[in-house]
Design brief:
4 helices; alpha+beta; globular; 23% helix; single chain; 29% strand; 207 residues; 8-stranded mixed beta sheet
Length: 207
């Protein structure tokens, strides 16, 4: 069994004053449900912040972020300037056991953005790990993966897709810290890959 179960959510970075347009598309055209609207995840920060609107499709979610520029340009605004409006900033993957995956990730040369974020979102303890950017460079402009472990509820293995201001603030702050530190390291060191590694044959799947 692998470490990942499924895609948990996809986060798109929106250009200034377009988050409502994209929310309309995901809700009215695709049939999602707006479950959270946070218009400022860092209201007390005089430098920058972002909006975070979250849409649920039942089995996975979409998060929309839009930069709020104050004394400084928001990291989301920087991302949009490089990649364009409604560009995919990150995909989050749901893990069976996030701590076990983190240990494996580190062993294989992976570079988390910071510590695992742990919080109680009302459904139970939620864990999140953000990794560094897929390519070396400015942390504000990099696409990156997120790994989560969500609480299960009832007798099923379904998970409740939940987002909060605390979660948005947490990953925003980790990227801000990387920018301030000049950390441009990519998310994995491929020197851990064996030189003789060959892709295995595709696994057969029974109908």
């Amino acid at each position: 069994m692998g470490f990942l179960r499924k895609v948990d959510h996809v986060t798109y970075a929106c250009a200034k004053d377009t988050i409502e347009k994209w929310a309309w598309f995901h809700i009215e055209v695709e049939g999602g449900t707006l479950i959270s609207r946070i218009d400022d995840v860092r209201p007390d920060d005089p430098d920058s912040s972002m909006k975070l609107w979250c849409i649920d499709y039942g089995g996975f979610g979409i998060a929309l972020v839009e930069g709020i520029d104050r004394r400084k340009k928001s990291q989301v605004s920087k991302f949009v300037k490089r990649h364009g409006d409604h560009a995919c900033q990150h995909v989050a993957f749901d893990c069976h056991d996030l701590e076990a995956f983190r240990r494996h990730f580190l062993k294989m040369g992976g570079h988390p953005r910071g510590r695992t974020l742990v919080r109680n979102d009302g459904f139970g303890v939620l864990k999140q790990m953000f990794a560094k950017g897929y390519e070396e460079g400015d942390a504000a402009e990099a696409s990156f993966p997120e790994y989560v472990q969500r609480p299960t509820h009832g007798d099923s293995r379904d998970v409740q897709i939940t987002f909060s201001e605390q979660a948005g603030r947490g990953f925003y702050e980790q990227i801000e810290n990387a920018i301030e530190a000049g950390d441009e390291e990519p998310f994995v060191d491929f020197r851990a890959m064996p030189k003789d590694w060959k892709a295995p044959r595709p696994a057969s799947r029974s109908n």
